[in-house]
Amino acid sequence: MSDVTTTDLYEVTMAMSYLREDMRAPATFSLFVRDLPPGRGFLVAAGLEPALDFLSRYRVEPGDVEAFAAALHRPPEDLELLLGLGFDGEVRAIPEGHVVFAGEPLLEATAPLPQAQLVETYLLNQLCHQTAVASKAARCVLAAAGRPVVDFSLRRTHGPWAGIQAARLGALVGFSATSNVAAAGALGIPASGTMAHSYVEAFSSEEEAFRAFARAHPGPVTFLVDTYDTDEGVRTAARVLTEIRRGPGCAIRLDSGDLGELARRARATLDAAGLPEVRIVASGGLDEYAVAELVRSRAPIDVYAVGTKVGVAADAPYLDAAYKLVEYDGRPVMKLSSAKVTAPGRKQVFRRPGQPDVIGLWDEDPPGGTQPLLRTVMSEGRRTAPPDRWEYARARLAHDIAALPASARTIDDPDPVHPVRSRALEELTSRVRGEIESRFFPERLGASRSGGHAGRKAPPPP
Amino acid sequence: MSDVTTTDLYEVTMAMSYLREDMRAPATFSLFVRDLPPGRGFLVAAGLEPALDFLSRYRVEPGDVEAFAAALHRPPEDLELLLGLGFDGEVRAIPEGHVVFAGEPLLEATAPLPQAQLVETYLLNQLCHQTAVASKAARCVLAAAGRPVVDFSLRRTHGPWAGIQAARLGALVGFSATSNVAAAGALGIPASGTMAHSYVEAFSSEEEAFRAFARAHPGPVTFLVDTYDTDEGVRTAARVLTEIRRGPGCAIRLDSGDLGELARRARATLDAAGLPEVRIVASGGLDEYAVAELVRSRAPIDVYAVGTKVGVAADAPYLDAAYKLVEYDGRPVMKLSSAKVTAPGRKQVFRRPGQPDVIGLWDEDPPGGTQPLLRTVMSEGRRTAPPDRWEYARARLAHDIAALPASARTIDDPDPVHPVRSRALEELTSRVRGEIESRFFPERLGASRSGGHAGRKAPPPP
Q: Is B71 on the interface with A (CB under 8 A)?
């Protein structure tokens, strides 16, 4: 199964029609999140790098045409106009790691209409999933308030691929390590992990398990102390750690129970045993809320490992994102029905210190003192720069988070920043709405506030 | 990145220690879900087939050893005992499609301890994710009460791999089609999809868009009618459908607004136009709750397309699953700490008509009239039968759901079935608990109800 056929069928049926009608004029699609989920004061843009990889290699091969034809119960000859299609358009996007808000385009693609349409599903898939997970993970880093956070999510992510991405996104938002060996190697970040409860159970005693582990691993070790009785496990760990003298870097891990209280007692036991350098790692269903509560209660926990709830962004595992046509053949377009009105035209986001972002038009003059967030990252189907490294994304995020209002950064009931629209975008939206209404609903115009546009001619057909 | 390195590092550190200590005796691990999430009256076992594929091809190659060594900052020579390890054990499991409940082993693996440990992360990853998604999807089929359900989830799943699996799991639970071209081809199920709002917007009018679509697609067509004004869109669709006379199989799709009310008006318009055979498809953020409400209100919707919330199992995107050591070298073991007590020994699940399942021991005599759910699916590292087809899993699920109590099947506030434990399992649990307590906490025995075991000798070290 190629990436090209990993698509919704309707991208193919639409592209076939566009090609048949010779509708190959440039189209611009805008990918944005309509609303932030509850519990999010900001989102972290992510998924662009894999999306650009996909666009760079996109090409409809004969096997893809055959798969499309089979899905449509038609002979491959009927789809031959699709053969060889690549993506040779332009992409403007917000680089990974920037903080973003509702309505801000994460990515805009401009390409001949069939091409820009065919890539929709995959782009949404990448950007929705990764932005959702990165946004959750970033909140864990905030909650830990400077203490290291480690990714333990692989066993719970939606497949192994999502596990690799969870580790990448953890690194991007500031995690210090991952349990995922493949991801650690690929990203150049530390791998973390020592033993499970089953390890302790496989030996005749907890002490024998710890000793055996130390025999196999000459460096610093971490002992899991809650297989039987946690306080006893801490004492056993202290005894073995005292004997083996592995120096700094050793730790104990607590994985169940009242982590704050157990950590306080463990700290006392370790300190009394002359082991103040032995760290305490906590894990077990932690998310940003649990971490924040432990930090608030001054639990002596040195490292937080988060897995299950973070790797799947458990409280917001999807985003309400859309990939909307905003311009075709030079004509701005928009959707009017129900509450899902889209804004027309190619856009830019202008970030202003201490004030909400301005969503404006790509070609308008930036308001003074603002930073435009979208960059041209692909031109004529080629990346304009080498793949972005996660280290740069991490630096962007640190910068953006420092500039966030405290109300957006807070863990409990955050209040997201609401971007405003530039005057130029407001005017374009109003004009296009008037044009569509005069074209489709001339009878409404007497009562419409867009009445001034009543005499405006509908735009020429494409 | 190989599947072998897509693992938590601790599997590797534990396996290294086991090999160093020559602890290669058979170990049995049990994979089960501790508790059902809220909103689930049952789970659908899924993920076994990809898990068996993984086990069948598992082998630690030199590149994997190098990746492990890099993660541990050790020379590859230190890990050479791992080289060439495969999985040549036995797997007993509940086939995909069976309904399962809390505490029931989905899978038990018996293999030399290092092997059985190394595969933990991947097995949990597969079974947790897929059982979570299948369970959500099965509820959508129940809610639709016989109407076709279609998978539209690819744009929201956690990566493209998860999208392929979502389509597979949809087929398994009874969906009639998927929008995912690659999955449709691989599974031999219908692909579904026609047009997006952007398609309508790219033309000078809705009517022109519908006509162009019909020109490109000679068979039955589905027109999306809510780009501008839905009632007007339905009238336009009716006009074009009347002209093109494509016969049965044509449809309109509603994707926003009050779907029930819009469907009623659309049905009236279509019927008045002499198009009673044109079906109404509903989509747009649907899950089992929304589908059930529409069905209850007798909305004239013929097909439900579900995506976002189902593909990520939005209200329960993970399961509280564990992979626990239950036997090592013939000695049953268990974990005692906190609330996460595990039951020792190799297990079987006995299903009884009209009564809760019995969780018992693998080798105990089945109670009369019961069906044992776990089968030996792998022996000496090889599948005991060809890969199971999703069609068989679908049949199993249909059978099991028909036998469920209504309280477990209901959409709102379902009440899961609570399995009971067999007498043999209760006795083994009590005995092992007593042995562990006498070994670790002799001082507690005076006050313990397991006092009868006080004189029992701790089992010999492995």
A: yes
Pair A160, A279 in one domain: yes
Cβ atoms of A299 and A260 closer than 8 Å: yes
Rounded to 10 deg, the angle between the A259-272 and A288-296 helix axes is 50
Contact A75, A69 (CB under 8 A): yes
pLDDT of residue A437: 81
ipTM of this complex = 0.94
Domain limits for position B76? 9-132+316-421
Is A106's Cβ below 8 Å from some Cβ in B?
A: no
Interface touch B155/A213, C-beta < 8 Å: no
Chain length of chain A: 462
The reply to whether residue A184 touches residue B157, judged by beta carbons under 8 angstroms, is no
Q: What is the pLDDT of residues B71-126, one digit of tens each?
A: 999 999 999 999 999 999 999 999 999 999 999 999 999 999 999 999 999 999 99
Residues in chain A within 8 Å Cβ distance of B117:
196, 198-199
Which of B177, B174, B183 shows the shortest CA–CA distance to B46? B174
Q: Chain A within 8 Å of B284 (Cβ-Cβ)? A: no
Q: What does the pLDDT look like over A28-38, one tens digit per residue? A: 999 999 999 99
Q: Does A128 touch chain B (CB under 8 A)?
A: yes
Total domains in the fold of chain B: 2
pLDDT category at B338 given cuts 50, 70, 90 is low
Does residue B455 surpass a pLDDT of 50?
Answer: no
> With an 8 Å Cβ cutoff, is A217 touching chain B?
yes
> How much is the pLDDT for B342?
77
B128 and B52 within one domain: yes
Instruction: State which residue of chain A sits closest to B335, comparing Cα positions.
Output: A227
Nearest CB to A161 within list B117, B156, B159: B159
pLDDT in tens, B128-174: 999 999 999 999 999 999 999 999 999 999 999 999 999 999 999 99
A392 close to B (CB below 8 A): no
The model's confidence at residue A457, banded by pLDDT at 50, 70 and 90, is: very low
Whether residues A55 and A144 fall in one domain: no
Nearest CA in chain B to A21: B212
**Statement to judge: residues A123 and A25 lie in one domain:** yes
Look at residue A456 and tell me whether its pLDDT is greater than 70: no
